[in-house]
Design brief:
Blueprint lengths: L15 H24 L9 E2 L10 E5 L5 E3 L2 E3 L1 H14 L4 E6 L5 H14 L3 E4 L2 E2 L10
Helix pairs in contact: 2-3
Amino acid sequence: MKLRSLRVEKQPKLMIIPMIDIIFFLLVFFMMSMLSMVVQKSIDLSLPQATAAKVNMETTIPISVTRDGAIFVEQEPVAPETLMRRLQIEKERNPKLAVVLRADADSQHKSFVFVLDQLKKVGVERIAIATDSKAVSEPAQTR
């Protein structure tokens, strides 16, 4: 008769499902954190509000106009005299150039129109104007 040893040796089980869960969690975490980093390539402004504001995730170049009329391409300040040349370089680099025009709510209308005019002269056809989302209020009911 054969006696079993009192010491039972068990092989540890490799649980793969919890490891897959952790890997997916890390993947989602890093994807979400990278999306929030990619969108903001420009300076902070107080944008006007609109009810139909949404973010376009295409590859675009943000152009910002500050309250005092200064112009920034991405985060680099650009003099009005050199803006057209900078836009021509970007247009040569990417023929389907898309621009997000961000203007401070208190900025000068003159600077905003100047930038739009320069974009038109260079031949940029895809221009988006950035706004903040505004809550839609219910219309007042009359009796």
